[in-house]
Amino acid sequence: MAAPAARLARLSRTVTFSACHRLHSKSLSDEENLKLFGKCNNPNGHGHNYKEPCRCIWLLICPFFLTLQIDPVSGMVINLTDLKEYMQEAIMEPLDHKNLDKDVPYFAEVVSTTENVAVFIWESLQKLLPVGILYKVTVHETEQNIVVYKGEESLSE
Q1: What is the pLDDT of residue 1?
Q2: Is residue 95, in this structure, part of any structural domain at all?
Q3: Cα–Cα distance, 61 to 84 (Å, whole number)
Q4: What is the pLDDT of residues 9-47, one digit of tens each?
Q5: Is residue 77 part of a domain?
Q6: DSSP states of 80-107
Q7: What domain count does the chain have?
Q8: Do residues 66 and 150 make contact, with C-beta atoms less than 8 angstroms apart?
């Protein structure tokens, strides 16, 4: 009798956090930054409100997906308590209610676009999760602006 096939599942968990930022590249002049980023280049930063009414400056919904084999004993792909702790450490502690450009060292040299926020979250989660299980990170800046990041991919893929 053949061994039963491994059952894989994709698990998603969402977290919401608030932060502010300014889109500004040190590689560009003030005039070039203003032309490229417009009102998002405001020297005092800017924010977004997303979905829920709140007093937040910038509200992001960040679902990410894990692909794992379902454990035949526990019936889980990962213990959700552990996953919640990983998300707290990788996302909430460094980003929630922060000025990304001033409070998060990663963004001292990296423009705090939603794309780069997704990369930051990916890299932070990769350090905590078992190797190879993180499938993608999705960051919703607004209802219209959504970034999906799946790690390093080449344009030929």
Answers
A1: 65
A2: yes
A3: 15
A4: 888 888 888 888 999 999 999 999 999 999 889 888 876
A5: yes
A6: HHHHHHHHIIIIIHHHTTEEHHHH-GGG
A7: 1
A8: no
- Helical H segments across 6-68, by residue range: 30-37
Is it the case that residue 98 has pLDDT exceeding 70? yes
Please list, in sequence order, all residues whose beta carbon lies within 8 angstroms of the beta carbon of residue 147, skipping any fewer than 6 positions away. 114, 115, 117, 118, 138, 139, 141
Active site residues: 40, 97, 141
The gap from C-alpha 156 to its chain's centroid, in whole angstroms, comes to 24
Q: pLDDT tens digits for 64-95? A: 666 678 888 888 888 889 989 999 999 999 99
Task: Give the CATH number, domain containing residue 133.
Answer: 3.30.479.10
Residue 28 DSSP one-character state: S
Residue 16 lies in a domain: no
Give which of 17, 11, 8, 9 is closest to 121, Cα–Cα. 17
